[in-house]
From TrEMBL:
UniProt KW Membrane keyword: no
Transmembrane segment boundaries: none
GO molecular function: ATP binding
Top-level division of the source organism's lineage: Bacteria
Name of the protein this chain belongs to: ABC transporter ATP-binding protein
Key words, A-Z: ATP-binding, Nucleotide-binding, Transport
SMART domains: AAA
Family assignment from sequence similarity: Belongs to the ABC transporter superfamily.
PROSITE patterns xref list: ABC_TRANSPORTER_1 (PS00211), ABC_TRANSPORTER_2 (PS50893)
Gene source species: Arsenicicoccus piscis
UniProt-listed Gene3D superfamilies: P-loop containing nucleotide triphosphate hydrolases
Domain ABC transporter positions: 8-251
Length: 283
């Protein structure tokens, strides 16, 4: 038996923008861990440092200090060269994949690119894997030859997810991945993510503004304010005994406990709509 080791362990993470006396500390000593197959929700008001953490996890940013241990290996101090073989393990799904999807490439090419990088040699094999992924995320075969501008927001998000999956990641960092979508489309994408997790044991760090989604998707939640973690724990316990005003708002707008097990799209649609109303009322 090996000792229990979380898939991701972040220790005393500090991230500053700028240098010297102009440095701004966006993340200030954050520590958390995520087990394999688990979803950790990260919530907190705008500007508290959520996206900064997400960017550090995929190493779009280099931390000022602290550790990012993936399976025990610290990614924080690594050079781009050292990171290359590890990059596929952590993938990111962005809020608007439109910006991150090349508008001139077909969906099949977009998804096949990471498959090729993984070392799958023949073009026809790459196309086959891409087609299977596009099917898996619920898009029709006719999507293969179409380009991003021809898709709806929800469809583009599915392509973004298929592309992320093409690297065969262990951890998916979703930064407001469903926030720009209509409520019903949002529910469908969340359902897809939860199905994928059940099938493959994927691990998620799920950053969201939508307080209603938190309870449905994650057993554990981390609440941030001004670059620090102000509360962290089991979502249910956190919502039952919120210490922070933000968490209290989270509780007021969160889903009913009866909807905890399995996401039923229709229920989720209703819940997200209700949470939006509650959010507006509590501001
Ligand atoms: N490139 C940058 N240079 C300087 N400051 C930045 C940069 N990016 C973000 N910041 C600042 O760092 C802080 C954290 O930003 P971040 O984008 O991580 O917040 P967030 O929690 O993701 O907010 P939101 O919910 O609005 O997306 C903010 O004060 C922001 O203004
Ligand atoms: Mg953000």
């Amino acid at each position: 038996m090996t000792a229990h080791q979380p898939l991701l362990e972040v220790k005393d993470l500090v991230i500053e923008y700028g240098h010297g006396e102009h440095a701004f500390r966006a993340v200030d000593g954050v520590s958390f861990s995520v087990d394999r197959g688990e979803t950790l929700a990260v919530v907190g008001e705008s500007g508290c440092g959520k996206s900064t953490i997400a960017k550090a996890l995929v190493r779009l940013l280099k931390p000022t200090a602290g550790q990012i241990l993936l399976d025990g290996t610290d990614l924080a101090p690594m050079s781009q060269g050292q990171l290359r073989p590890l990059r596929s393990k952590i993938q990111m799904v962005f809020q608007d994949p439109y910006g991150s999807l090349d508008p001139h490439m077909t969906a099949q090419e977009i998804v096949a690119e990471p498959v090729a990088l993984r070392g799958t040699r023949s073009k026809s094999e790459q196309r086959k894997v891409a087609a299977a992924l596009i099917d898996r995320v619920g898009l029709p075969a006719t999507a293969l030859e179409r380009k991003p501008p021809e898709f709806s927001g929800g469809q583009r998000q599915r392509i973004g997810i298929a592309r992320a999956l093409a690297s065969n990641p262990e951890l998916l960092v979703c930064d407001e991945a469903t926030s720009a979508l209509d409520v019903s489309v949002q529910a469908q994408v969340l359902e897809l993510l939860s199905e994928l997790q059940a099938e493959t044991g994927l691990t998620y760090v799920f950053i969201t503004h939508n307080l209603g989604v938190v309870r449905a998707i994650s057993k554990r939640t981390l609440v941030m304010r001004s670059g620090r973690i102000v509360e962290q724990g089991y979502t249910e316990e956190l919502l039952a005994r919120p210490r922070e005003e933000y968490t209290r708002r989270l509780r007021r707008s969160a889903l009913e406990p009866s909807m905890m097990s399995g996401i039923k799209p229709r229920d989720l649609v209703r819940a997200i709509a209700a949470s939006r109303t509650a959010e507006k009322e509590s501001v």
